[in-house]
Amino acid sequence: MTSKKTLIKNAKIVNEGSISLGDILIEGEYIVEINKTINPKHIADVHVIDVDGKYVMPGAIDDQVHFREPGLTHKANIETESRAAIAGGITSFIEMPNTNPQTTTIEKLNEKFEIASKTSSANYSFMFGGTNDNLDEILKVDPKQVAALKLFLGSSTGNMLVDNPEVLENIFSKTKLLIAVHCEDETTIRQNLEKYKNKFGDSIPIKYHPEIRSEEACYLSSSKAIELAKKTGARLHVFHLSTAKETDLFSNKIPLKDKKITAEVCIHHLWFTNKDYDEKGTFIKWNPAVKSQSDKEGLLKALLDDRIDVIATDHAPHTLEEKANVYTKAPSGGPLVQHALPALLEMYHQGKITLEKIVEKMCHNPAILFQIEKRGYIKEGYFADLVVVDLNLPWTVKKDNILYMCGWSPFEGTTFKSSITHTFVNGCLAYENFKFNAVKAAKQLTFNR
C-alpha cells in the first residue's frame, strides 16, 4: 500500500523568520519536499490543495492547557478540547496535572496517555505533578516521554501546592526534568484577600482581582523560583507572566536553546486589561490576574525582544454556572485554544506583532524549549503539522461556533479578520473550512533528550 500524498500549492510559507512562496509535498505523516514549485504531474496518486497565496504555518504547540480529564469532565475533556484546538490551529498540546485524580503517580500519568491515544485530535503530552511528598515518583519519570514537571508555587488545587522550602530545593536539585512553575505568593494573596473580604464579604467586586493577586505576589514568587534555579542549576520555565516588572527577571542575551531559565506569556495577558473587568466580569478571572495596560504593554515588549520565549493559552474551562458565582467562589480560568491564534493574527493586523514572530513564539520556540522531536517547523523530514491561514476571511465569535464543551468564550462578540481554513495533523487533513474530517491522526509527543 502506498502512502497518501498531498501537495499544497502556492503557499506563503512562514518559517524560521521569513516568508517565501512555495509548494509543500506531504507523504504519509511527513513533509518530504519543499520547493518553489512542485509539479503534481510527476507524482502518482497525489491530492492537490491550491491555497492560492494563503499563509501556511507550522501547527502551533500549546505548552499549557487544562483539558479536565479525568475527573472534571463536566467542564471539558480531551476529545472536545483537542477538537477546538485544531480548529484554532493548535496541533500539539501539553496538558497539566491538576485533574482528578491528580497526575502525581506514574500510574495516573499512563491512564491519561491511554485516554488521549483513543480520543485526542491533536498531538499530546502531559506534565507530571509535583507535591510535597512525591519525589520518589518524580524520579521514576522518563524524560523522553514527559514534557516537564509542573510545580504550583501558588494557586494550586488539592494538595499540589509545593510550599515546603526543603522539599522544593530537593526537587530542583534532583530532577532531570524541565520544571514548569506557576508563581504567585500564597501568603501575600491570603493577606490581600482577607482585607477585601473584611470590606465586601464574599461579593468582592471583580475589579479588585488584580489587587488581590497582585504584582507583588507574582514578583515575589517568580524571583524566588529563579533564585532557586540558579542555586541548584535546575532548568526552569516560568508560566504565564502577568506583570511588566517580572519581565526584568529574564534575559535575551543568549539563544533559547542555551537558556536555563525561560518564560511564557498567555493570550489573555496580551489582550485584556483591568479596564475589561466591568464588561467581562468573571469571564476574565484568571490566576495570575489580568492587570494594567502598562503590564500588557510591558509583556508585549518583552515578548518581542525575546525575554519572553513562548506564547500559550492556559486553556482552563469552567461551566457558566461555576463562573456565575460570587467572587470568592467563581473559579479562575477560561477557554482559549480555539481563539488564541486568531487573536494573535488580529494583533498582526493591528501592527503589534509580525507573522514570523507569532510562528517563532507559538511553534518554533515551544519545540526548542521542550526538545520536541520533529515538530514546530516546516522542514523536510518533519511531521506534517501545518495550518493554512486566510488573513482576509472575517468571522465573529458566537455561541453557535464556539467548540468548547463549556459553550462560552471571553472573545464572544469579537470579530476576527483572519480564519484558519485547514489544519493538518501528522499529514492528515483534520480540519477544513470550519468542518472536521473523521480522522484521528494524533500521536504522543516525544522528546529528544
Automatic annotation (TrEMBL):
InterPro entries: Amidohydro-rel, DHOase/Allantoinase_Hydrolase, Dihydroorotase_CS, Metal-dep_hydrolase_composite, Metal_Hydrolase. GO terms for molecular function: dihydroorotase activity. It comes from the Bacteria. SUPFAM superfamilies: Composite domain of metallo-dependent hydrolases, Metallo-dependent hydrolases. The keyword Hydrolase applies. Keywords: Hydrolase, Metal-binding. Residues 55-427 form the Amidohydrolase-related domain. Its cofactor is Zn(2+). The keyword Metal-binding applies. Its EC number is 3.5.2.3. NCBIfam families: PRK09236.1, pyrC_multi. Belongs to the metallo-dependent hydrolases superfamily. DHOase family. Class I DHOase subfamily. Catalyzes the reversible cyclization of carbamoyl aspartate to dihydroorotate. This is Dihydroorotase.
